[in-house]
Amino acid sequence: MLERRRIIALWQTQEVPEKPTSLAFSFAIRPKACQKLPLQGNYVNSTDIISLSSGEMMTDRSHAAGKPIRTAITDEDGIDFAIIELLFFAYRDFTSDPDQILADYGFGRAHHRVLHFVNRRPGLTVAELLDVLKITKQSLARVLKQLIDTDHVVQLQGPRDRRQRELYPTAKGRALALALARPQSRRIHAALGDSGITERTLVERFLEAMVNPELRAQIDVGSAKMSGKSHGEH
């Protein structure tokens, strides 16, 4: 785009004999015009490709760039950057342990999330899982197919509505979900001990409050079903 603007500018000042319609053109630019621009020509498919030199391109980019800010952003305007940054680091390390296990299976974090909720709520439908994960059907379909093909999850027809598809873990899927959760659980218990927090409910209430109010019911559903009150027990 930069080359095109410069060449059109030359045409408007009558330095180019006719208006160019493309960066790839075969007409000759008069020597006077060539002397004013650091143009480079390449012969490709019987066409002269005229472009600005890399030095000219970089110079124009540097002029367009803003000035660098050399001071760190701070807790100005009431923004709690300290907690925000701690959440970044905590999430990075919290997910690092299962990431290593998932890599051995060729899986990623999307597979982990599906395995977690299918194991916590056996029998939940595809629609319910989509609502929890907040992802597209296409994204879930790809991940779910891999988990089904590798015998970690099974999909059954709903007993009340045949259009529904209920999801259940297999023994293989249950074992993998536990393997992924163990290092995360150890990290949580270690953090509770190191921080001196004796009331874990304080942490639970804080994390629940971070969830959008209209979606907190999903947490309650998960808690109610974790002790045998699942879809799978009809």
List keywords for this structure.
234 residues; 4 strands; two-stranded antiparallel ribbon; Tscrpt_reg_MarR-type_CS; 2 domains; disordered C terminus; Arc Repressor Mutant, subunit A; DNA-binding; single chain; two-stranded antiparallel sheet
From the coordinates shown, what is the CATH architecture of the largest domain?
A: Orthogonal Bundle
CATH class of the largest domain equals: Mainly Alpha
Low-confidence residue ranges = 22-35, 43-50, 227-234
Number of beta strands: 4
Major sheet, described briefly?
Answer: 2 strands, antiparallel
Brief synopsis:
The protein has 234 residues and is mostly helical.
Describe this structure in words.
The chain has 234 residues and is mainly alpha-helical. The protein has 2 domains: 2-64, no CATH class; 76-225, Winged helix-like DNA-binding domain superfamily/Winged helix DNA-binding domain (Arc Repressor Mutant, subunit A, Orthogonal Bundle), CATH 1.10.10. The protein has 10 helices and 4 strands; from the N terminus they run ααββαααααββααα. The protein has helices spanning 2-12, 31-36, 54-64, 81-105, 109-120, 126-133, 137-149, 171-195, 200-209, 217-225; strands spanning 39-44, 47-52, 153-157, 165-169. A hairpin with a 7-residue loop joins β3 and β4. The termini are far apart.
